[in-house]
Amino acid sequence: MDAFVQDLRLAVRALVKRPGFALLTVLTLALGIVATTAVFSAVNTVILRPLPYAAAEDVAVLFRTNAVTGERSDGVSAANIRDLREGTTLFDNVAVAEPWSLDLQVDGRMESLRTWTVSRGFFDAIGGEPLLGRTFSNGDYDDGSPIVVLSHRTWVARFASDPAILGQGLALDGQALTVVGVMPPEFRFPDAAEAWIPRLPQPWDESSRAADYMTGVARLSSGASLEQGRAEIGRVAAGLESSHPDMNSDLAYSVVPLREHLFGDVQTPLFVIMAAVGFVLLIACANVAGLMLARGAQRERDYALRGALGAGTGRLVGHVVAESVILAAAGCVLGVGIT
């Protein structure tokens, strides 16, 4: 160990005497590390990191699609999703979330909350577990309970992370809604919601089957594949088209995996880019190896003199290793720091 520490000191002195070589080597390594780290961070976020939802691989988002043109709309309608839920056997839960807005009265002023009204089974479909309290139960939909679930951001920003918020009544749109739960910070479905309230069946649902502004979400049953689910939804959609031809003309549904919905269909491009930057890192390492060989050739007389004075092969190799360790560590620190 003492010898290695001495080799490190000698390596630092040698690199200080050749700052051009040291700087070029470190920058070359940093360039390859920056590219690789940046792309791997994207791959990790989009593909490798688990989504903050229970069994997220079984969750899909639904979109109304024109069966003839293939054009996909922005969402679904409540009545069609209700019939879809009742007509499928391969999905445990099928629900909708409708964009809404609630005005929260705080200290005599009104603040708008980005809210979603969600149908029965929404939180079960998406796999969301509350941080505090609970989500909506079937009983809440049966008796029309005036309740609300808050997002973590709303709980922190507007109520100072007060755990006593559970059970309190909030003045929302002039009505007292009781807070029954707070979601964890990573739960932001759909579209960074600030609050959720139960969505009860509405009189206009039947006449609004052609609407496509609600977010549909479904959870596959255990053992069912996405392709099987798509086929079953296609059969139910054909029945809905026959029973309501005026509003469901050319009706079909796109069943999009949750990860693809959140990040897009980027898995293949990301892996291609990852392979490309891997080659960039290999080229950078090859260039550094060439620089080290050139430096070694220039120091041939120095190594010969040290050998003549009694330095063994192991000691000479240890000096080269120490120099390489310093350059590699500097390149890593610079590359990761830039990233």
Label this structure with key terms.
single chain; 339 residues; alpha+beta; ten-stranded mixed sheet; 11 helices; 49% helix; 20% strand
Write the layout of secondary structure elements.
Elements: H1 2-17, H2 19-48, E1 59-66, H3 78-87, E2 91-106, E3 109-118, H4 122-126, E4 132-133, H5 138-143, E5 147-150, H6 152-159, E6 169-172, E7 175-182, E8 195-198, E9 215-220, H7 226-243, E10 251-257, H8 258-263, H9 267-298, H10 300-308, H11 313-338
Parallel strand pairs: 3-8, 5-7
Antiparallel strand pairs: 1-9, 1-10, 2-3, 2-9, 4-7, 5-8, 6-7
Helix pairs in contact: 1-11, 2-9, 2-11, 3-7
Compact overview of the structure:
This protein has 339 residues and is of the alpha+beta class. It is built from eleven helices and ten strands.
In terms of quaternary structure, the protein is single chain
Q: Globular, elongated, flat, extended or rod-shaped: what is the shape?
A: elongated
Relative helix content? 40-55%
β-strand percent reads 15-25%
Order of helices and strands: HHEHEEHEHEHEEEEHEHHHH
* Measured distance between first and last alpha carbons: 33 Å
Number of strands: 10
Q: Which structural class fits the helix and strand makeup? A: alpha+beta
Question: What does this protein look like?
Answer:
By secondary structure, the protein is α+β, with helices and mostly antiparallel strands. It contains eleven helices and ten strands. It has helices at about 1-15, 20-50, 80-85, 120-125, 140-145, 150-160, 225-245, 260-265, 265-300, 300-310, 315-339; strands at about 60-65, 90-105, 110-120, 130-135, 145-150, 170, 175-180, 195-200, 215-220, 250-255. Strands 1, 2, 3, 4, 5, 6, 7, 8, 9 and 10 form a ten-stranded mixed beta sheet that branches. A hairpin with a 2-residue loop joins strand 2 and strand 3. Helix 2 (about 20-50) crosses helix 11 (about 315-339). The mean pLDDT is about 85.
